[in-house]
């Protein structure tokens, strides 16, 4: 059975809510009230609750949508460049995604504690996208064939955690480049 199609105005409201919540979280306001998000989106609180009945549902949807977009970018990055270069670009996008989610850390933690957690299917799509980059790299000889997607995502998460306190973007970039060099089959 297919999911019912959302009315155009309802879809616009949903997108405005997601955008307002993304902006609030990106500004470092992980505990922003749903009423504040509804007001910023220009909708009533009832409209927000129809789409996102709890703060955790809203946080998980933002996380899922952004992970889906990141996963889709992997294929686009492979066009016209070596896989190792596509991987480097994708890793930069993923690191930006993770660093902006630090503001959502407490909201994501509450979501996981409630049993909802970030969508495992979204994580699987990210690992699958990373797997396509790695596969392309093993095929073109630029990425070591033993490279595993889940190891790369774990290393990237570790890089973000290791640099979070210093907020040193240069260190973040240097560590990411070390990871790229580590998975590279060629000398960079």
What does this structure look like?
With 188 residues, the protein is mostly helical. It has two domains: 1-53, Homeodomain-like (Arc Repressor Mutant, subunit A), CATH 1.10.10.60; 55-183, Tetracycline Repressor, domain 2 (Orthogonal Bundle). The protein is 73% helix and 0% strand. It is built from nine helices and no strands.
Mean pLDDT: 85
Structural class: mainly alpha
- Number of helical segments with 4 or more residues: 9
Roughly how many Å is the radius of gyration?
18 Å
Helix content: over 70%
Low-confidence stretches: none
Assembly type of the shown chains? single chain
Distance between the termini: 50 Å
Main sheet: strands, sense, barrel: none
Tell me the domain tally.
Answer: 2
Shape: globular
Looking at the overall shape, the CATH architecture of the largest domain is Orthogonal Bundle
């Amino acid at each position: 059975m297919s999911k019912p199609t959302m009315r155009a105005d309802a879809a616009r409201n949903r997108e405005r809510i997601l955008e307002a919540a993304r902006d609030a979280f990106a500004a470092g306001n992980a505990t922003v009230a749903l009423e504040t998000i509804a007001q910023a989106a220009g909708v009533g609180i009832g409209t927000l609750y129809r789409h996102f009945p709890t703060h955790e549902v809203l946080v998980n949807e933002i996380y899922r949508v952004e992970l889906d977009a990141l996963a889709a970018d992997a294929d686009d990055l492979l066009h016209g460049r070596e896989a190792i270069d596509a991987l480097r670009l994708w890793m930069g996008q993923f690191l930006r995604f993770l660093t902006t989610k630090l503001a959502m850390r407490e909201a994501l933690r509450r979501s996981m504690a409630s049993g909802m957690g970030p969508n495992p299917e979204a994580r699987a799509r990210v690992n699958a996208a990373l797997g396509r980059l790695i596969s392309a790299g093993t095929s073109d000889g630029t990425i070591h064939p033993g490279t595993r997607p889940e190891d790369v995502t774990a290393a990237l998460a570790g890089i973000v955690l290791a640099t979070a306190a210093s907020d040193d973007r240069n260190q973040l970039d240097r560590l990411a480049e070390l990871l790229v060099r580590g998975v590279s089959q060629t000398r960079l």
